[in-house]
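Quick review question:
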């Protein structure tokens, strides 16, 4: 079957309504992306800033959709002046499921750890395999920040170590650490959906007995041998005193979610407590690691 793709350029105020209307009128899928340059989740974002100021809406429609009627209905609900531009494309028949699956292949880190979606067979040469499908929570190993953390984890001696994964998303870092030999992992996230995803992925990989997960206020976090946090610069800076109190003297720290030009600010926040190593880069993203100093005061937050 062939398809139609309708692309609308609109604004922050109307993008959600247009998306909902398109779904009501039979769109198979609707996606939103930026026309303007500002990030969706910037460091200065407020709860009310949920979309880009100039947003592009793409809808996949059945080939027999009456676009004249659809566009007329959209203009009745949303002012014509708020639909800045639109275009229609005919898409040839293709295997959408197959294309999606090709974009999420098994990924191997340090020749030791494989993160594999359920529709693929992991390579026999890799000793540790985490089965994990893409979902609503961040973390499949495809993003550079997650890849940096996984490469680092796979290079550590994790046998009988404890670890905190702060900002766990899908649980990929905590669960990978358990596969690699960690004795217990604490997975922490402010998003309930992330906790649900982490718990489901733990059960899928038979790792639930060695995992404790929850939101920050609901967990008592112990001093651990390692802490990894793949989040954003501002939270990393504000959490530095807390993290310093959670990592044992001589324990390891790994921080990502950082752009290369944010490295110096993050280093400055942690150097009082950690002997920080040289950053590692993957394209524009960075990983910072460090060792907790001996003798400096520790007070978990």
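Suggested answer, residue by residue:
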């Amino acid at each position: 079957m062939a398809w139609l793709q309708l692309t609308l350029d609109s604004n922050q105020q109307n993008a959600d309504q247009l998306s909902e209307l398109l779904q009501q009128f039979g769109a198979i899928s609707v996606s939103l992306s930026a026309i303007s340059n500002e990030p969706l989740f910037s460091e200065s974002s407020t709860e009310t800033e949920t979309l880009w100021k100039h947003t592009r809406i793409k809808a996949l429609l059945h080939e027999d959709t009456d676009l004249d009627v659809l566009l007329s209905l959209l203009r009745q609900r949303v002012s014509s002046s708020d639909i800045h531009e639109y275009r229609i494309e005919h898409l040839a028949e293709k295997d959408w499921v197959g294309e999606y699956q090709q974009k999420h292949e098994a990924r191997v880190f340090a020749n030791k750890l494989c993160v594999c979606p359920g529709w693929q067979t992991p390579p026999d040469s890799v000793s540790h395999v985490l089965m994990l499908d893409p979902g609503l929570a961040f973390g499949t190993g495809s993003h550079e920040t997650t890849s940096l953390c996984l490469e680092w984890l796979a290079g550590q001696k994790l046998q009988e170590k404890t670890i905190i994964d702060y900002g766990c998303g899908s649980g990929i870092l905590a669960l990978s650490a358990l596969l690699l030999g960690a004795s217990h992992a604490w997975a922490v996230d402010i998003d309930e959906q992330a906790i649900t995803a982490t718990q489901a992925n733990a059960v899928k990989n038979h790792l639930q007995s060695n995992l404790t997960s929850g939101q920050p206020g609901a967990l008592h976090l112990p001093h651990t041998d390692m802490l990894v946090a793949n989040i954003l610069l501002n939270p990393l800076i504000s959490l530095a005193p807390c993290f310093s109190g959670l990592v044992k003297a001589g324990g390891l720290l790994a921080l990502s979610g950082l752009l290369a030009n944010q490295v110096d600010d993050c280093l400055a926040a942690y150097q009082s407590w950690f002997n920080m190593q040289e950053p590692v880069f993957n394209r524009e993203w960075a990983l910072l690691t460090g060792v907790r100093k001996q003798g400096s005061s520790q007070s978990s937050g």
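Why it works: The longest helix spans residues 12-24. Residues 38-51 have pLDDT under 50 and may be disordered.
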